[in-house]
Amino acid sequence: MSLSADTQLRVLHPLTTAIDPTAASRLRLSDDHVTKVVFLRFHQGDAFSYTNVYMPPRLGAQLAESMN
After folding, report:
1. Which of 19, 41, 42, 68 lies 20 to 30 Å from 6 when distance is taken between CA atoms?
2. Run of H or E including 44
3. Are 24 and 34 in contact (CB under 8 A)?
4. How far apart are CA 65 and CA 17, in angstroms?
């Protein structure tokens, strides 16, 4: 939990629909469509984590809706 308290998160690529067979397979989806978001995490101004998050499109749509 302290990671979120003393770091900053910068979204590089907001929620988007992508075709990624590898991610879709790992998520056990029935097709190759996923929702993806990419972000950097900083501590004291220095980037230390680059993260790609893949999720089922249904979850991505729910997350996008909750952000509006």
Report:
1. 68
2. none
3. yes
4. 14
* DSSP code at position 6: S
> What's the alpha-carbon Rg for the chain, to the nearest Å?
14
Write out pLDDT tens, residues 15-60: 999 999 999 999 999 999 999 999 999 999 999 999 999 999 999 9
pTM flag (> 0.85): no
The pair of structure tokens assigned to 23 is 């991610």
Who contacts 55 (Cβ-Cβ below 8 Å, separation ≥6)?
27, 34, 35, 36, 63
- Please state the domain count of the chain: 1
Q: Which of 7, 11, 29 is nearest to 19 (CA)?
A: 29
